[in-house]
Amino acid sequence: MANLIMKTAMSVPHPNPDGTTSHSTKPASGQVAGYPPKGEGTNDRCANFAFFAADENTTLALAQRLATLLKPGIVIYLRGDLGAGKTTFVRGVLNALGHTGRVKSPTYTLVESYHAGGLNLLHFDLYRMHDAEEWESAGFRDEFDGRNVFLIEWPEKAQELAPPADLEIVFSILAHGRQIELHANTETGRQCIRLLKE
After folding, report:
1. Radius of gyration (Cα) for the chain, nearest Å?
2. 79, 152 contact by CB (below 8 A)
3. pLDDT per position as a tens digit, 94-143
4. Do the strands 48-53 and 178-184 form a parallel or antiparallel pair, or are they unpaired?
5. Which pTM value belongs to this model?
């Protein structure tokens, strides 16, 4: 499976030289108020990885590969337009971990929780979050205790309330297929990308 990914992979520069993305809401200090700092950042540029997914199966292959690298506490942002493949990617992760039930985007409930592969996973879809304060009133902050895996669609909707991401995955719709780019913001994210490239 790794070979399948590597055949379509290429290195891409990070959108910004300081290691942040154009959508990032993380303060320059690398810490969001109320959350503990990651404590893993380095001064080198973030690791980046991108590849072309010709079809859904290729997207699922990457998701399945990443699923083997997840560990409690990791925060992953999923960015892209509606229909770009974010929820498909989450489904691939969950199926790879042994989940056999339906996986749907929690557009109205904002979050769905799963237990699979010995991990507790929280899938957020914040597209319909009207006010960033909904994050606080729903008690989402309490979930970020280092014991769960977080997959967050539309993280910008939470503004500065969402914790910083270890890994950001950006889905772009092309005329034929998808471009999927991974940007690592911490050593945890960089380790994921290094292992994906092996």
Report:
1. 16
2. no
3. 999 999 988 988 877 889 999 999 999 999 998 988 777 777 777 777 77
4. antiparallel
5. 0.76
pLDDT (tens digit per residue) in 6-19: 444 333 443 343 44
Orientation angle between helical segments 86-96 and 56-67, nearest 10 degrees: 50
Q: How many residues does the chain have?
A: 198
Q: Which is more confidently placed, 20 or 168?
A: 168
CATH code (residue 118): 3.40.50.300
Q: Is residue 37 part of a domain?
A: no
Q: How far apart are CA 109 and CA 138, in angstroms?
A: 10
- Examine residue 74 and state whether it is found in any structural domain, yes or no: yes
The string of DSSP letters for 66-106 reads HHTT--TT-EEEEEE-TTSSHHHHHHHHHHHTT--S-----
| Among candidate residues 84, 24, 81, the one with its CA nearest the CA of residue 56 | 84
Number of domains in the chain: 1
Query: SS3 of 149, please?
Result: strand
Is residue 189 one of the residues assigned to a domain?
A: yes
Query: 82: domain range?
Result: 2-12+46-194
Strands 167-173 and 178-184: antiparallel
What is the three-class DSSP state of 108? coil
| Beta carbons of 75 and 165 less than 8 angstroms apart | yes
The token pair at 155 is 């993280």
- Is position 22 within any domain? no
